[in-house]
Amino acid sequence: MIPVFILYIVVLIIIVTYSARRSKTNSDFVLGGKKISGFSLALSERATGESAWLLLGLTGHAYAEGMAAIWIALGCVTGILFLWTFLAEPLQKLTAKTGALTVPGLFSGKFQGTSRSFGILSSIIIIFFFILYIAAQFSGAGKIFNDTFKIDPLWGMVIGSALVTLYTMLGGFITVVATDAFQAVLMVVTCVFLPIIALGIAATYNINIAETITQANYTIPLNADTVKQATGGLLILNGMSWAFGYTGQPQLLSRMMAMRNKKETRQSRWVAVAWTLLAYIGAFMIGIIGYKLVQAGALGEAASVVANDSEKIMPIMVMTLLNPILAGILLSGAVSAMMSTASSQLMVVSSSMTEDFYQQVTKKQIKEKRMLSLNKIITLGVGLLGFFMAIIMEDTVYGLVSYAWSGIGASFGPAVVLLLFWKKFSRAGVYASLVTGTLTAIIWKTFLVAPTGISERLSSYLLAFVMAVVFSLIFPEKEKSK
């Protein structure tokens, strides 16, 4: 198994070395300089969008809650389909028109004289929430390395964070997309082959998975006593609310922004949709089958590990059920899930700090080489900060991702949707979306989730959307937008 993982690292190094040579300018580093194919961007978006959340978070959630967790999977799939069906082409078109390199750049490109205020506010929001997101990925790396190679979780986080930070520094967006495309293939292979193999093993224990699915309760979590989750209609609503966040994630929207033309965008849509369906069905089934295998004693002593941390079900199944070579390949897919997202998030934070914050604060014309160097230095700094946050944070991968997803999605999502589809949307609406989404996600998560049973994903997005519309109507644009 170790030789297979070493081979995976070698392939990554080769990809990084080759792709880094194409990153010559700051535009290349931040958004690829229109040098990347739509096929690669689609795979990159999917690998980036799912992360350790898919192979650790969702599998663990399905293990803990049973078929009641299906609403989360359906919410995510709905959001992805909406993103690629309705937002991808308008984003590509607006990017070409404004020349923006970041999502905040789209706002300032539309409304004259807002680049400084939008840039600073947006970068603060991105930095706050994405550090938590990056920490979640590094935490996921620690779990995988611990279960796979019995490496201390701390050293697992060191290895994972160092690899991601270094290759992101070397080539920026181009390198990140190139490695993402490779990692997306490994991830979907893991999601397809592991449940198929697990189904075969379940049959030898006379486990009827079809019967399990048809007789399951879809509105009450399997382990209701240990899961702090609403039931019935609220459970469905909270699960489906994952869909909202997809409209505001800069690490995903940047892939649509980097598309070269409308034709490539439409072709890429089918790649993303096919990958999503295969990956989500597979990941969800891993958790469901894993629970039945633990009940049947098929995972042996390893089951005690899962009892303490349900997010370890996928690596435990791989280690217990498969031969070392196949296990090494599939676990490389799990590591890929973490690395692809963490690298993209590092890119979003570093580019936001340079393009949206530093340049807007200094208001200086900065030389191309200096901007490129600054981006690389900040990428290193953000990687180190994310690593230290991963050490001190005690929440699960699912919990950290849910919080960061809510904050970013609610802040930027309503603004992006209204910017693309509503002509009366004003700069006041942008401010309202950014501020309301951020504050509501923090306040609701801290004080109101438990008493109301409503997730911060749903409440923060809806409130931000309403406030964006209201402020646009109260404070309309007096001058024609750019």
Key features?
482 residues, mainly alpha, Sodium/glucose cotransporter, globular
**How many extended strands?**
0
Number of domains: 1
Unreliable spans are none
| Name of the level-1 CATH class | Mainly Alpha
Order of helices and strands: HHHHHHHHHHHHHHHHHHH
Write the layout of secondary structure elements.
Layout: H1 2-20, H2 26-31, H3 38-65, H4 70-98, H5 103-110, H6 115-149, H7 153-204, H8 209-215, H9 232-240, H10 242-245, H11 250-257, H12 262-296, H13 303-308, H14 313-321, H15 324-362, H16 368-392, H17 397-421, H18 427-452, H19 456-474
Written description of the protein model:
The chain is an all-alpha fold. The protein has one domain: Sodium/glucose cotransporter, CATH 1.20.1730.10. The chain is 81% helix and 0% strand. It is built from 19 helices and no strands. α3 (38-65) crosses α7 and α7 crosses α15. The chain is globular, with a radius of gyration of 22 Å. The N and C termini lie far apart (57 Å). 57% of the residues are buried.
Compact summary:
This protein is mainly α.
